[in-house]
Amino acid sequence: PEPDRPVFALYVESKDPRKPLTQATAVIVKGRYKLMYMFGYPKLGNVRERLELYDIQTDPEELVDLSSSHKDIAGELLQEVKTRIREADQRYL
Known about the structure:
Layout (H helix, E strand, L loop, with lengths): L6 E5 L12 E7 L2 E7 L9 E7 L15 H19 L4
Antiparallel strand pairs: 1-2, 2-3, 3-4
């Protein structure tokens, strides 16, 4: 397998399978980084989305969120996640 091949996971509490995603947690692991993207949860308030980025090679317990200090990596992974979500939602629009 390719070491930089992305692996995706998606957690949805309740979802009408005939509608686009509006509330979920999406995860991408690519290379040494893991990005968690949470969106649509009421507890996020006005922020509406939250990111967490971890270097799972040097921080396997995910104690240090790098999303602020590694904005370029977080942005790249977030774009990849959002693209996949848009592609999956396309059939429902």
